[in-house]
Amino acid sequence: MALLHLLMRLRADWNLDLVVAHLDHNLRPESADDAAFVGEMAKGWNMPFVMTRLPFGALTQKGNMEATARSLRYQFLAQVAAQQQVDGCRVDVAVAHTANDQAETVLMNLIRGSGVHGMAGMRAVRPLLLQSEPMPGVRVVRPLLDISRSEIMQYLGEHDISWREDPSNQDLTFVRNRVRHEVLPALEEINPRIVASLCRTALVMRGEAQRMAHYTQKALEATRRRSSFEEVSTSTRSSPSNSMETSPNATNRQVFDLLAFRSLVPADQREALRACGRELGRPHFELGFEAVERLRRTLNDENRSGGPYNWIADVMLTRTQDAFSLHHRDVAPFAPEHPYLGGTWLADNPARELPAAGEIVVDRWTLRCEEVNRRDLRYEWAEKSTGALRLLPAQGEGRLSRWEAYIDADAVQQLSLSTPRAGQRFEPLGLGGHGKSLGDYFTDRKVPRFLRSGWPILLDGDRIIWVGGHQIAHNVRITPGSRRVYHLFWEATGQ
Question: Which of 13, 258, 308, 333 is 20 to 30 A from 99 in CA distance terms?
Fold first, then answer.
């Protein structure tokens, strides 16, 4: 109420368009009266009022009720903010956290064992996060963050402003309330200015966090491994210095050189992992000491390949002998430097037709089909290598020799590009028509598990006729009786 009154007094000078937004959590019988009170005050002060009431029981499900309430509250505020955006204008969601709230936050983070970022407390201005992603053009602002609760109460009294007290603020089963009513008063007996001291600590720690971010960025750059086909360029990657909650340009994968990572001191290793977690879209409160330290020790103490393993939420760890990748669950851990059908390319099309004398473009690669006459093949190819996968030097810029094949054009009807599906079998060249499961074939050919789901295979109907980069099927081999031949090949067509 104090914040609303202050903004009302400033709206003419600051050219503010104010909207009062209230979410009724519906946890207490009197919560409806609270909503009505706010609505009447908004009406009396000539401000638009937006209110939503949660269904009864929405916050009594399993899980952290406070965290769920906060998530739903900010979802509601984001919806209201989105409705106010006109022609890309910025919208600020003003919330009334005070210096006492900041002091409580610092203490709670200290009790939880937080590092510098937790001790930095709340920021006066930050992007509004919706499902861990920044909402464009919307900020959360805390104009009262340097004002104590006693000063707020004095302001309310001087201006004869009514307010309502939430009875749950007295419930000592909540950690924040115990800190507010028990811990802080005890500390005030030692230091009467404890609230100001803790707020000063937050300010100092925020400066330290910004200073550390400079060195963290150097550590990241020294250990990060890049491929020429990485999906995210360094120009779109944000610096940790401006990503206290999450990175505004979250990536899908971060790959590191393991030996370079191990050469860092433990503090730099922790900060590099936290920064990586933020760049992968995780908020800082999920990147606590235990989660980060567990991963750090694993990377330093264990020498084994494998994954993906769960780290935090949908962020996974996959490692090799000399590298490791932190990536989203549905993303390949390492950027393949060969054709790969990852992401959502085939989400709506289980198989895509490849016409004769046609092509299919996939990300940075193009699959082409060209018809050639059997008689135009070289003599030694026809006599000595009939039916074998042709492994020639690359012909033309971007050509990968093991990613091309020749098949009998009359042995197929309609080619289509797809990815592996459960239960598929393959009859590779040379087995005389005897097949094996595609999974066993991948194992025999040492195809990494994390690449198998997006591995490009060519079908004729339901029949696999080419496992890209490996072999054609036995029944599409070129024989002395073959007249027409399809030349299939992948080419790199862009970066």
Answer: 13
